[in-house]
Specification:
By secondary structure, this protein is mainly alpha-helical. It is 41% helix and 0% strand.
Length: 146
Amino acid sequence: MASLDSDTAAMLALRCPRCHEGRLFTSSTYNLTKFADMPEVCAVCGQATEPEPGFYFGAMFVSYAFSVVIFALTAVALYFLAGDPAVWVYVVAVGTAAAAFTPLSLRYSRSFMLYWFGGIHYQPNWVRYPERKPRTAPAGAPSPAA
């Protein structure tokens, strides 16, 4: 797949912030057992998807904001489209909408955190460097343990 030039388009497509090609998640959005699984590194460029341990705790606040928007839009839609129904209808509709959009909310909050606060920038000409081999002592040299 060709890389996306725009950070916003790549963020919305849930692509790697460095190469804009690799996927941020390993499975389908509505695979309920694995919708939050992320690879440790991008399969295309090798960029780590978790910049530091506990990085995605901040995504809870972004997810909360998404949930507030979902709640508000559902309530406003019910008020205008259903003519202000009973309270139980609001509770059921908002609960159903929140449950249905949880996988999307989680994924986009993590993507938002990675793009805005991860310190990773798009590099259109990224180069995958070969893995380094550990240095060995030249033949006949004393070993470091000696």
